[in-house]
Inverse folding.
């Protein structure tokens, strides 16, 4: 059952997504990325053609590879919407424009949506599941993320 989301929770949940984008854009900040997720989170990018991974170990391995191959990232989030809220759990959707340039000079631009399922923990809101889809055709290649 969804109940109205308290403004403080909405802002804290939005801040979690912003923290994710900042960590990804700070190439090499794997601990910042992991800090967004619970230990057994599902990180599922199959909606954009990448293999899903599970837990901090899988997320760490994914970003170790991404950061080894990428020189620059920039992610811009808009249109935040709480899509479900039950007090200690919630779901949020945000639009994203993400750009990256690989160390090999190849670039990619994505226009899509982030979907995060989150839970309130003793350390604040954390993501339990993350997925993404495209709104526009992919510009460039995701090879540097595989």
């Amino acid at each position: 059952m969804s109940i109205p989301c308290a403004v403080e929770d909405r802002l804290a949940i939005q801040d979690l997504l912003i923290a994710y984008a900042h960590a990804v854009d700070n190439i090499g900040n794997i601990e910042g990325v992991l800090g967004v997720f619970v230990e057994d989170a599902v990180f599922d990018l199959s909606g954009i053609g990448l293999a899903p991974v599970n837990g901090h170990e899988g997320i760490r391995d994914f970003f170790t590879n991404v950061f080894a191959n990428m020189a620059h990232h920039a992610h811009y989030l808009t249109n935040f919407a709480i899509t479900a809220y039950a007090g200690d759990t919630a779901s949020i959707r945000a639009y994203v424009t993400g750009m990256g340039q690989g160390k090999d000079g190849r670039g990619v631009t994505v226009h899509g949506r982030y979907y995060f399922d989150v839970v309130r923990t003793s350390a604040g809101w954390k993501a339990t599941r993350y997925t993404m889809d495209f709104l526009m055709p992919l510009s460039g290649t995701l090879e540097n993320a595989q």
About this structure: Residues 47 and 133 are 5 Å apart (CA to CA).
